[in-house]
């Protein structure tokens, strides 16, 4: 069966500091991978998605970036965090051979920027 | 702008009753519809998906889709306290667009 890991689970960072969140998927090959952010009391906002190694599509202009160095690894980064970057960051995967929109989420990283 | 609308709740449901959640969407071109359950502090969990008009049943959950009226609903039969969560509706428009969710509270 497939599993998805995210770390760290929680993170408190000062404004202006860098960020690196990691997501890995096990039990599947060539998944579609997604980064979402959920602000408090709000819906999920798609930040980035990737259909393969080195292929990144950005949905929202911001100070975040994403990379996919390996087939089942997805990284979310920032050089300088803003207060508005606080939120619940979720990685998700989907199986390309079925509906690309049937997505499964990892446990998430709760980021607080102070 | 394409939108997915849900009543934020909270929807209070007595234990054993049916919880009825509604979701409307703005674009007729959508083909795939999803319901996620999110417990407080946890990540969303996919519980139902529906692609065709009509009803789809899975255990105590029933998803209903009406593309002509642009709504999708979720029924939870025999509601249990463990069903207390926020339920997110998601609609596919080349990507998943999520509603803000409906909070359900099942009272013993």
Structural key phrases:
heterodimer, A: mainly beta, seven-stranded mixed sheet, four-stranded antiparallel sheet, 11 strands, 0% helix, globular, B: 108 residues, mainly beta, five-stranded antiparallel sheet
Description:
In chain A, the strands form 2 sheets. In chain A, strands 2, 4, 5, 6, 9, 10 and 11 form a 7-stranded mixed β-sheet that branches. In chain A, strands 1-3-8-7 form a 4-stranded antiparallel β-sheet, with no helix packed on it. Chain A is mostly beta strands. Chain A has strands spanning 3-7, 10-13, 19-26, 32-38, 44-52, 55-58, 64-70, 73-78, 87-94, 104-105, 109-113. Chain A is globular. With 108 residues, chain B is an all-beta fold. Chain B has strands spanning 4-6, 11-14, 19-25, 33-38, 45-50, 54-58, 61-66, 71-76, 85-92, 96-98, 102-107. In chain B, a hairpin with a 4-residue loop joins strand 7 (61-66) and strand 8 (71-76). The mean pLDDT of chain B is 95.
Question: Secondary structure elements and their pairing?
Answer:
The complex is a heterodimer of chains A (114) and B (108).
Chain A: E1 3-7, E2 10-13, E3 19-26, E4 32-38, E5 44-52, E6 55-58, E7 64-70, E8 73-78, E9 87-94, E10 104-105, E11 109-113
Chain B: E1 4-6, E2 11-14, E3 19-25, E4 33-38, E5 45-50, E6 54-58, E7 61-66, E8 71-76, E9 85-92, E10 96-98, E11 102-107
């Amino acid at each position: 069966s497939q599993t998805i890991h995210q770390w760290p689970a929680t993170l408190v960072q000062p404004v202006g500091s860098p960020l690196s969140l990691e997501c890995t998927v096990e039990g599947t090959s060539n998944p579609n991978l997604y980064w979402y952010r959920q602000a408090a009391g709000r819906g999920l906002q798609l930040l980035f998605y990737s259909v393969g190694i080195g292929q990144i599509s950005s949905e929202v202009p911001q100070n975040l970036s994403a990379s996919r160095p390996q087939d089942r690894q997805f990284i979310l980064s920032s050089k300088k965090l803003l207060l508005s970057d606080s939120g619940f960051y979720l990685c998700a995967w989907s199986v390309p051979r079925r509906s690309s929109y049937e997505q499964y989420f990892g446990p998430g990283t709760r980021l607080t920027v102070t | 702008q394409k939108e997915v609308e849900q009543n934020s709740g909270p929807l209070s449901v007595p234990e054993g009753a049916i919880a009825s959640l509604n979701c409307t969407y703005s674009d007729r071109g959508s083909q795939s519809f999803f319901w996620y359950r999110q417990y407080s502090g946890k990540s969303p969990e996919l519980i139902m998906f529906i692609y065709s008009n009509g009803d789809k049943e899975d255990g105590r959950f029933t998803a209903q889709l009406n593309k002509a009226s642009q709504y999708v609903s979720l029924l939870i039969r025999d509601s249990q306290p463990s069903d207390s969560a926020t339920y997110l509706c998601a609609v596919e428009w080349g990507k998943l667009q999520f509603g803000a969710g409906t909070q359900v509270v099942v009272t013993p």
